[in-house]
Design a protein that fits this description.
By secondary structure, this protein is mainly α. A hairpin with a 3-residue loop joins strand 1 and strand 2. Helix 1 packs across helix 4, helix 4 packs across helix 5 and helix 4 crosses helix 6. Strands 1-2 form a two-stranded antiparallel sheet. The chain has six helices and two strands; from the N terminus they run αααββααα. The chain folds into two domains: 71 residues, Arc Repressor Mutant, subunit A (Orthogonal Bundle); 50 residues. It is found in: Cytoplasm. This is Iron (Metal) dependent repressor, DtxR family.
Length: 129
Amino acid sequence: MEEKNELTTAEKTYLLKMYRVLATDSKRISTSQMAKLLEVKAPSATDMLKRLAARGLVSYSKYYGCEMTEEGIRIASVISRQLTLTRKFLIQKLDMNEEDSQRIAEKIITLNEPVLFKKIKRALILYKR
């Protein structure tokens, strides 16, 4: 199975949004809901959901939307943790506000640099001491 670091920025964004919605609402999300969340047209959302389905990250069914597979949930949870760690780092270490930290963290998590997230985590642990 392909790892999260091989995902495009858009794929990571879709997985993260879907993960957050499905964690609080239901098990399935419609294509129109995804399009609205990501501010894209429905055909664009459909194309991306099909691409994620081809990678085994979601289960997509025309007219019924999609749900995340176990692998999709696993990868999305890693992305979510990276986003949370990065936001915390930007706020605590660099004194950024919530809005700026969110925007910048969303860009940082698209980097294919696992060592960066290890260093951020370590810096936050040292910060607590």
